[in-house]
Amino acid sequence: MSQFNIYARKLDTAFKEARSEYNTAFRALQEAQQASRDANAWKPGDSAEEKQVRTTRAALKLHDAEATSRPRAARSAPSWNRQCAPPILQTPTQSTITPLS
User: 100: which DSSP letter?
Assistant: First the structure.
């Protein structure tokens, strides 16, 4: 098995994990958006207090879903670079940089 085949498999695995995380967060965000729309709809027999409680809970759930979906997207790309890029393509760290003398 060639060296690049190993990196391709690692990249595939990392991509599938990131896609799964993203899909889970996206589904939760869509459900929260739908719950928010449903909470804002007028229902017969609702009092103002009941509607306010329902809308506030839905807004909180939507805020939480938005807050958890953003970091997942930002976290994906750097982890792919760390796990899957061949050593030649990885960015050097401070310990590998030699000062010019």
Answer: P
Q: At residue 36, what is the residue type?
A: S
Residues in the chain, overall count: 101
Taking CA 86 as the corner, what is the angle to CA 2 and CA 14, rounded to the nearest 5 degrees?
90
Quick one: pLDDT at residue 34?
Answer: 92
Beta-carbon count within 10 A of 80 CB: 15
Assessment of whether the complete model's pTM goes beyond 0.85? no
28-87 pLDDT per residue, tens? 889 989 998 888 888 888 888 888 998 999 999 888 888 887 766 556 555 555 555 555
- Give the per-residue SS3 of 42-72: CCCCCCHHHHHHHHHHHHHHHHHHHHHHHHH
Distance CA 30, CA 32 (A): 5
**CA–CA separation, 12 and 67 (whole Å):** 27
